[in-house]
């Protein structure tokens, strides 16, 4: 019978056996999967695991600082790398979604590769890949719907062996394992967040200013969900900055500013999803807060599309 405890026991034993005294590098994302993978490895091989956490400039508001602190408290060996400028430079003027994904994915690998090379004697690359990532990345119909950059690994030239302890698990199983490992609810209960981050939630080209605007709007939405207890009722939620300006009125002045879409969905694996029927009062309050507090936004809409035929992300 599968239980989190038996999974942990057998996986830690397997990792010890497989890795021995080798050194392992792992990319932490702040998400549940990579965190659970890191804690499992840490349990198996201790300080021989080195984690790298990259700020690509497309994380949520204060995410880099908060998560880094959290990891350090958990006793993980973490290197935090600020690479914001590199990503903003590479993304300037790029509007096509898959192109943005490729640039962000490539930038990430470059940063990770550069940092991993500075470490000595690394033999393994660990990843928090879970079963749905594996499936969605397989090209069954000969067509890749969206390229998920956390699958596929590091360039061959680094000559690392790959270890993916969560490869056979679904998200709910990963969370159960995480709770059993005593990872805080704060981290375990986190919604999934795409590797390319806010980069696929800013439709059109990305600028640091747009990132700032979206971070503020997203923060109001997410904090509102947390404060009202709705956060754990939904699978995933976030704000999307639309490349649409519309007319508004503020005091007695006419405004012409951006629209933000809010998206919240119910799902069990991300492969299908229903839009979340959030209370009107809640949506009204979040909308008011965003429009009043976030400079550059004068209209908020709520996305009521389900997957399929829509996807969870807008890009
Ligand atoms: P879609 O938009 O395809 O998203 O319905 C399904 C789930 O996958 C996440 N997602 C990504 N995750 N890299 C990732 O690591 C990506 O490029 C990517 N695109 C979408 C999305 O947030 C949702 O949880």
Automatic annotation (TrEMBL):
Domain GMPS ATP-PPase, residue spans: 2-190
Domain of life: Bacteria
Tagged with keyword Iron: no
UniProt-recorded Gene Ontology molecular function terms: GMP synthase (glutamine-hydrolyzing) activity
Keywords: ATP-binding, Glutamine amidotransferase, GMP biosynthesis, Ligase, Nucleotide-binding, Purine biosynthesis
Catalytic activity as recorded in UniProt: XMP + L-glutamine + ATP + H2O = GMP + L-glutamate + AMP + diphosphate + 2 H(+)
Pathway: Purine metabolism; GMP biosynthesis; GMP from XMP (L-Gln route): step 1/1
Keyword flag Cell wall biogenesis/degradation: no
Subunit annotation: Homodimer.
Function in brief: Catalyzes the synthesis of GMP from XMP.
Protein name per the record: GMP synthase [glutamine-hydrolyzing]
Organism: Coprobacter tertius
Shown residues in whole-protein numbering: 193 to 507 of 507
